[in-house]
Amino acid sequence: MTRILEVTDLILRDAHQSLMATRMAMEDMVPACEDLDNAGFWSLECWGGATFDSCIRFLNEDPWERLKTFRKLLPKTKLQMLLRGQNLLGYRHYEDTVVERFVAKAAEHGMDVFRVFDALNDIRNLQTSIKAVKKSGKHAQGTICYTVSPLHTVEAFVDMAQRLKEMGCDSICIKDMAALLKPQPAYDLVKGIKEKCGKDTLVHLHCHSTTGVTLVSYMKAIEAGCDIVDTAISSLSLGPGHNPTESLVEMLEGTGIETRLDMARLLKARNYFKTIRPRYKEFLSDITGVETEIFQSQIPGGMISNMESQLKQQGAGDKLQEVLLEVPRVRKVSGFPPLVTPSSQIVGTQAVFNVLMGPYKVLTGEFADLMLGYYGETIGPKDPEVMEKARVHAKKEAITCRPAELLKPEWEHLRADALSAKANGTDEDVLTFAMFPQVAPKFFATRDQGPKNLGKDPAATPAAAAAPAAATPTKPTGPQKYAVTINGQVHNVTVAAAR
Amino acid sequence: MTRILEVTDLILRDAHQSLMATRMAMEDMVPACEDLDNAGFWSLECWGGATFDSCIRFLNEDPWERLKTFRKLLPKTKLQMLLRGQNLLGYRHYEDTVVERFVAKAAEHGMDVFRVFDALNDIRNLQTSIKAVKKSGKHAQGTICYTVSPLHTVEAFVDMAQRLKEMGCDSICIKDMAALLKPQPAYDLVKGIKEKCGKDTLVHLHCHSTTGVTLVSYMKAIEAGCDIVDTAISSLSLGPGHNPTESLVEMLEGTGIETRLDMARLLKARNYFKTIRPRYKEFLSDITGVETEIFQSQIPGGMISNMESQLKQQGAGDKLQEVLLEVPRVRKVSGFPPLVTPSSQIVGTQAVFNVLMGPYKVLTGEFADLMLGYYGETIGPKDPEVMEKARVHAKKEAITCRPAELLKPEWEHLRADALSAKANGTDEDVLTFAMFPQVAPKFFATRDQGPKNLGKDPAATPAAAAAPAAATPTKPTGPQKYAVTINGQVHNVTVAAAR
Q1: DSSP structural state of residue B244
Q2: How remote is the C-alpha of B211 from its chain's centroid?
Q3: How far apart are CA B197 and CA B204, in angstroms?
Q4: Which residue of A413, B37, B82, B489 has the lowest C-beta tally within 10 Å?
């Protein structure tokens, strides 16, 4: 009897986020929707992650309108989004009411599957959003951020899956954002989850392809019973992106396992995005091969290039190797957080500062918060000396409760601020403002000019055009605030000397 | 107990043949040799295939000197070459003495492992070279060209492996030049060979990466007991090339199987070739992603782009789809030959002519020879009507014997011709002349100017520079001879109207 493997395609969200800095214009996605909707995917990831930010920051496009458009153009397929738990799509913790309202609005506009993760794998940071998704009658997917450390054993991840299941999650996602999941651990992890949580527990695997091994990991995970995998139409796949959808389909021939995908539809979408890709040449990742050094450094590729650019602007481009060695030490000091937005930026920036100014001579505000528990719990204990420095620096005590418990109701306040920033009075606009208070006012002011398409006729683009360099901190001399742009997202970093 | 998987690296031959039209200069390979020699490879493929042709045609380099240099620079590692059986490195059948002398000379200069294949999988075309390799005391690797057709079952390939073993081959290579070998057939094939030929039979797997599935095929083949696999250092891997060596090493973690490779050496070689690759920008394949349509058309990527260029020059660029559909029909008519040099060119050119001028209205001389058995036997029967056309066209009868049986001794004749073309009197020069009689005289005349390096400082190369277009036949009006350049190799095609 043939077993069916379900597939989620990422072309409308993570594929262009990973390969072309989230810049693809909605009008360049619309023509592919009919083929994608009829191809037989379990779901299409099309919203969340960095798309919300990119819409209002770069594309002058209302992200809520994008969602409504996808709902209309993809009537047959479940829509899926990536949600950063209590951070929603922003970079701080929101009070529970804001989280609930965000989820309710996304569900109202047609979102079906909410993939919810926390950068520290602290599941207390997922509970409000998971509960809100369940209340909306939608699919709540609890997420394990896969990482490698002495504490991140198969058993530890399986336990986490069990706790997510007990929390009411409809499925478990293993999210391998750095392509660190090798075939044997993939097999062991899926098998472990199926054994502990029951074989009917839906397991959904998301790997990037950066290291070149993860299509093999898919094969072994599928052999262990994995139910759904994430891929991207091949013309927008590989490198720091994902494994190609068509290759996955072909790979299974003769195994007794097949997808429900229609190859003719896939090839039509492939040919279409092949024509779109060169239009975004100036944003395209220049990595097309594999990067296996990640296995040694455990540092995602995008993070390395950002640290390199930070160092160069400090005239310290020769320190990259030192910083690469420092990152695992900072991870250990901070209890081995996975490296994913925003923990990757927090750990990476602190490693740069440690190398430039001496270990923990200067702490970023965010790193102090991480040490003091304001982002949640990490799997390992934190270094007590550095915690003490963080306490002095941040002038506040460590906490052990769920961070959002400490937040005061903020909806009315956000609504008032949004309205004075020319929001249109809808809850959607308040949520947009809440997530990007610096960017939203400008967007509200220019919204009626309509979306911009940053794609260009490749014949008209100069070959040497590079992606705009990331903004980086100037030489730190005392407490300062910086806006650090990382993978197109602005991250606010506060720096002060530690005593 | 840990099992060891052995690895052959292709960076010095097939990697640059597949990705940069075999143009890499010897001086660009020399600096990597120490790391490659100490990395722990089973062998390094560094000679044969198209390198001999490329050396004398483009690089003004003596291929025999290249071999001697590699032997000096790679003292610890077995050298490996690809040999086209009775065709040696040329495009016709040679009389047995020529084959014996070629093998003896290559062995004398340090070649260790001879991978011998025949484009039709007719093992009678391997017997002289295999015997010569054994006589030299070297490693004879018998090769199965993997292809897909109704007749190419696992059982048929396993039988072929058994016959190769009986012929005295030291190992069996499965050569998957078009990346058609999927994981389950890879498993079944290796398992079948181990069961039928004995578990001590060395099985060596060579896959290209064009379709994106073959690293998974490696995993399954290894699980079935495959002993050696072919990969390429990652900075010259993927696309129409091969799977990355570093990814293979990492992929095995936790499986109880490991390689003997030193990752630090691999990464040094990786970084080195990363700096070399952009120097050959004008020759670089523009395919960096995957091409899964090959599974439908069974036509290797390089063959498609060549047919496209032939059609365009005939003003028939819109006929490509028709030609793609015609290729499988030509394969059926001619007994399902695998598509590899030179059968890929013969079948492809005939398909173009069938579409342009009607089915078998015009036959190439080579296609007629293929139909009449002058290249050897195919797995399937041939179409009798087209065979009759071939007989009339070529004015000769079909044969069933080993084609080289019909050849008269030719060594003295070749020696005399080589000497009048200014060969230096060595057997090596006679062999060079024998393989490329049109090109060798010019090479002999300019040899003392020394090798050319076609690599260029990437900053000085105009971005839009394209690879030189392949020469293609002009409009056929009667019997004509054409020199068709395919993947940088000149192939002589004779065309006459069939009656």
Answers
A1: B
A2: 18
A3: 14
A4: A413
